[in-house]
Fold this protein.
Amino acid sequence: MATTGSSSASDRMYSQLIDEGNYEESRPDVHHSDCPVKDLRRSGPGPYRFATICLATLCAILLISIIAVTAHYKNKPPPSAEATAEMQKENANVSALMVLVTKLQKENKQLQKEKEELQMNLTSIMTAKATAPTAKPPRAPIVCPTNWRLFNNSCYLISKDRKSWTGSRMYCQTQGGHLAIILTAEEQTFLWDLLPRGHWNSYWFGITDGETEDEWKWVDDTPLVGGFWEENEPNNHINEDCGYIVKTEVLERVATKSWYDAPCSMGLPFICEKEMGGTTQ
């Protein structure tokens, strides 16, 4: 209040000096100016006082707000044990779900890898199948005509008719075959076992050296290699140019030493061979 009183006294003194005109006379160093002198009595300290009051009011409001918020949070009760347990349960559920998601992602990755491997295998199989040669249809079982016997892929006829070697060859040709060509010990033994035992049972088969002596050939014109001759055979004793098989009652005789040579004009039974699907001679 003292400040307010001093300010008012100063204003009165300043106004009095202006009214009396003594102010200009007492200050000879002050020159008159064409600019009008502002009347300080009209402005006064009012606006500054109002701003100060507003600022103080805002500070008070802010302080009250801070105190109210602080009191609110201080007075807020802590979460109950039930709420804490529920929150922990929810956190556990979230953790379990995350573990499950991670597991499913790994399984999905493994399934994708297996799918790619299966796709590659399928592609390989399809490629191999496309490039593989077409499989031949299964061959129908061989059925020999009546009185013919099957060995491997050929049928054999043990004929009881007696003919010369040339006549026997012609008969076999009429049956779609040829005189037997014996190339292996297994084939030789098979045919020898079909022959009956006797004093001197002889059977023509498809070998001759009629063109050149001692150059034995099969009826298909291929040369003989080896053979199953008896010891000291062939001997060409009396112009013996055709071969035959002998089976006697002597049990010591064996199939692989049973070939002899004889004149081709002799009348003997014979052995025909029909190669199933082959050519005739």
Observations:
- The chain has seven helices and eight strands.
- Strands lie at 148-151, 154-163, 178-179, 201-208, 217-218, 242-247, 259-262, 268-275.
- Confidence is low (pLDDT under 50) at residues 1-7, 20-43.
